[in-house]
Every structure is written in structure tokens, then in C-alpha cells.
Input
Amino acid sequence: DAKTTQPPSMDCAEGRAANLPCNHSTISGNEYVYWYRQIHSQGPQYIIHGLKNNETNEMASLIITEDRKSSTLILPHATLRDTAVYYCIAEGGGKLIFGQGTELSVKP
Amino acid sequence: GAVVSQHPSRVICKSGTSVKIECRSLDFQATTMFWYRQFPKQSLMLMATSNEGSKATYEQGVEKDKFLINHASLTLSTLTVTSAHPEDSSFYICSASVGSLGYTFGSGTRLTVV
Output
């Protein structure tokens, strides 16, 4: 699985869009980009995943660059409950290998 | 859909005893399940992959005799921490593959060995 790089922490104002970047410059053609988040002392929660097209669901949008070397997770209207660690994972081997993630703090 | 139930949520055991953690898929058949451990302020570390009816595949550095994994049915995988010691205290999380939907996770088990 390709290595992903994320900023260790980010802040976002409540009600504003949170844009979380992820670099996966060594991603191969068959590796999906998955996003999960983990709130303290809970299991990871699935957010979204995609291969090369942009994806949107009720939680977030995933924007993948055309060369697939990076992606951005967008939470359109962040709330305090979105405070969590967000993990970007390039998956191609049938399992998820977690990096360090981004600790997102949503502030009032 | 695709819910994984993990029990217990918390367990305290004495050093030298064994502890079993269960992971059940409630509304789907889980051919492949995964076990992770997580230390405070660290990321999840994959311990092993289990496929129903076959031996688990352990990640490098994980002691297979200490962390026994059984996946005897399509809805149940268990992790047994044998002869637990304080350094085994951690947050253990199971996960299951749900095909095109990705992977779903249990709520985790906080193990404290005293």
C-alpha cells in the first residue's frame, strides 16, 4: 500500500468548510483512497472512498487530483462533533494500513 | 448495514491470565476480519488478518502464540491475549471487509492488565 502524508493537526471554525489534504504520490493505479475518522476511544468511522473520480456522500466530499497523487477531504459545514483524527489511507492490498492522520479541532 | 459488534468494551485482568475479545458481524457475512491495537496517542497498528476457516496471517513482529486469533464462522472472530502482561494493555479494535463498501470497525476493547 502506498504511503500517505497528512498534516498532523488542523483547526477549523464551526460552520466553515474543513479541507483536509492528503498526499499519496506513490499510489498505484488499483489503490483506492479511503478516509476514516476516529473520535477518542472509539473505533474508526468510515467517511468516504474513491479511486479516481470525485465522490460525495452525506458526510463529505472527496476530491482526487487528476494524477491521483493527492486528495482532499471536504467537510462542508464543520460542527464541534467533527473534532476527531482523520485518516487518509491508500488501499490496494485488501487491508487498511493506518498512518498518523490529521487531528482536526473544530472551534466555536 | 454492515455493523460489527465487539465485546467486551472494557476488561481488566490480572497479569498472567488470558483474555478473549469477540468480534461479530451482525448483518453480513465477514469472510475476512482484521485485528488492530492502538496505544495512547498513536495510530492503529494492524496485528493480523483472519479469513474464515483458515489460519490468521500475522503482521511482522506480532507474536502469534501470544495473540491467538480464531475465525471459525462467517460472523465471529475472536482474539485471545494469552498470559497477559501490563505491556499488553492497549485498545484493541476489530474490523471486517465489506466488499465495495470498504471496511467497517468495531467499537474497540480497552484492555488493562494489572
